[in-house]
Amino acid sequence: MNAATKRKRVTEAIRAEQRVAKALSHEIHGYAERPFRERQSSEALARYLTSRGFKVEFPWKNIPTAFRAIRGTGKPAIGMLGEYDALPNCGAADGSWGHG
Known about the structure:
The protein is mainly alpha-helical and 100 residues long. It is built from 2 helices and 2 strands; from the N terminus they run ααββ. The chain has helices at residues 3-31, 39-51, and strands at residues 55-57, 68-70. It has a two-stranded antiparallel sheet with strand order 1-2. Helix 1 packs antiparallel against helix 2 (39-51). The protein is globular. The relative contact order is 0.14. The model has no long low-confidence stretch (mean pLDDT 92).
């Protein structure tokens, strides 16, 4: 497979997920959960990955908001760390929690 074909396949995959990914992003933004309390956010991400064929281990490593999602075998192996906890004084109201 040449580079142009690979690029086309990646672009098509992104376009296919764009609407759902944007809705998921807005959903998580709306929770604005404090550090180590991102239960709704992590559950939403785990549901999304499960619906896309990932095997999700939740919770993971004795951290109630952490999970591990695996799909396929072999290489490449890709890891991702997501930080989506809210920040103090970033919400809509003074002194409230929100996303920066």
